Amino acid sequence: MAETGTKTPRERYRTQVRAEIKERAWEQIATAGPSALSLNAIAKQMGMSGPALYRYFASRDELITELIRDAYRSLADTFRATSGPGPNHAALAHALRRWALDDPQRYFLVYGTPVPGYHAPDDVTAIASEIMTTLLDACTALPSDSPATPFETHLEGHRQWADGHPAPPAALRRALTFWTRLHGVLSLELAGHFTGMRFDPALLFTAELDDLLAH
Amino acid sequence: MAETGTKTPRERYRTQVRAEIKERAWEQIATAGPSALSLNAIAKQMGMSGPALYRYFASRDELITELIRDAYRSLADTFRATSGPGPNHAALAHALRRWALDDPQRYFLVYGTPVPGYHAPDDVTAIASEIMTTLLDACTALPSDSPATPFETHLEGHRQWADGHPAPPAALRRALTFWTRLHGVLSLELAGHFTGMRFDPALLFTAELDDLLAH
DNA sequence: AGATTTAGTTAGAGGCTATCACGAAACCTA
DNA sequence: TAGGTTTCGTGATAGCCTCTAACTAAATCT
């Protein structure tokens, strides 16, 4: 084999340990949030002493960034797998909701409260725009008949973020509202702001989705 | 004076020190987020040694809870001050946006990513329902003509959260969408998810608001 | 087999939360 | 105004944490 598709044993071991560290990190985040993530505790869980982890991640921040990257990647893949030809908003929406409920902290890592200083590395924002592209595809596939709103004409003049995507202004607007409205419902639901109230969040979600599809 | 409206000097001093501590805490939160809040650092800033702060707040968590309480209180007051007789959604919405932009971290303390274990004390949830009541008032004042949707009939059966408020189902639905849609736009804007894109978030916000008022 | 890279160790600096025991100041009361 | 009591702030300390540095031992490469 000319290609070392399977890497050297050391590299195999290394990636496997990195994976286990991330695994434990996800568990910690799920139970106590990202701020409670402790490299020391992970190391002890894995039977090694604190500083050993620094062979695998340069810092706590780098580990968290890696988790954020994985979260983005996971959502982008889910979206791409759901996306097909034609307008499949509903499928995307439900895929999003399933993905969010599957691991709320993972959702919050992507769309939750940011740390003021933090700036995502370029490859992460690239994944974000990949997600947006999938969404724009779905929106472009939907015909739009109603006349352009003022905001849509504003968007037509500020469409750099669509990154060359040929979506018409109405589709840009549709993608944005798809994003903000579903995020509005989802983030409040995941944050537990509906728990006291006894209605079914899933119905609110689909009601918003229906409204999105109707107009 | 039978009433000690002005307290004893000790109490005056005490509340003043508590206020200064919270002041510094807000500054720290604004620049580095709640997770970076350090009692030690605040103490040093105020010229006293670490443990002294524990005379004023039993723990870091208690201080943060107090900040959350103040944030809720501030929003409830803003809402109540904005609310008048009749349907003034637009005023409420813009008051909300101003309040949010005024101090994004304060907004996130209320509506942002929650710490998994954390449960807000009862008086805080009471303020939350006070906010909801103000919103329901505005929604009730608006006439609704369209036929009830399935979700609205569902809400009619699960309206405990309205806490005896006489709002009709359509108003319940309207209050929820008001909340989720505006939060959707605001939270993404404050979290910086629109920064790369060059459009004006204010226009998206008012576009969503207009849509809310139109239907 | 020897040289080199890498994984893991302990020690330690410096930060944090939080508790405790102690001195000192302020306050209340007789 | 003098004495007892409450309250404030202190330093010391325990126990976490992140992260660096020097060192050992094992695996890998030549």
Describe this entry's structure for a reader.
The structure is a homodimer of 215-residue chains. The model of chain A has no long low-confidence stretch (mean pLDDT 94). The first copy, chain A, folds into 2 domains: 1-57, Arc Repressor Mutant, subunit A; 61-214, Tetracycline Repressor, domain 2. Chain A has 215 residues and is mainly α. In chain A, 65% of the residues lie in helices and 0% in strands. Chain A has helices at residues 9-32, 39-45, 60-82, 89-102, 104-111, 122-140, 150-157, 169-190, 201-214. Chain A is built from 9 helices and no strands. Chain A binds a DNA duplex (30 and 30 nucleotides) through α1 and α2.
Radius of gyration of chain A from the CA trace?
A: 20 Å
Along the chain, the helix and strand elements of chain A come as HHHHHHHHH
Number of helices of chain A: 9
Total tally of structural domains of chain A: 2
Question: What is the CATH level 1 assignment of the largest domain in chain A?
Answer: Mainly Alpha
What proportion of the residues of chain A is helical, as a percent range? 55-70%
Structure class of chain A = mainly alpha
**Approximately how much beta-strand content do the residues of chain A carry?**
under 5%
If interface size is counted as residues with C-beta under 8 Å from the partner's C-beta, which chains form the largest one?
A-B, 51 and 51 residues
Outline of chain A, from the CA principal axes?
globular
Tell me the CATH superfamily of the largest domain in chain A: Tetracycline Repressor, domain 2
CATH topology heading of the largest domain in chain A: Tetracycline Repressor, domain 2
> Span between N and C termini of chain A?
57 Å
Largest sheet of chain A: none
The low-pLDDT segments of chain A are none
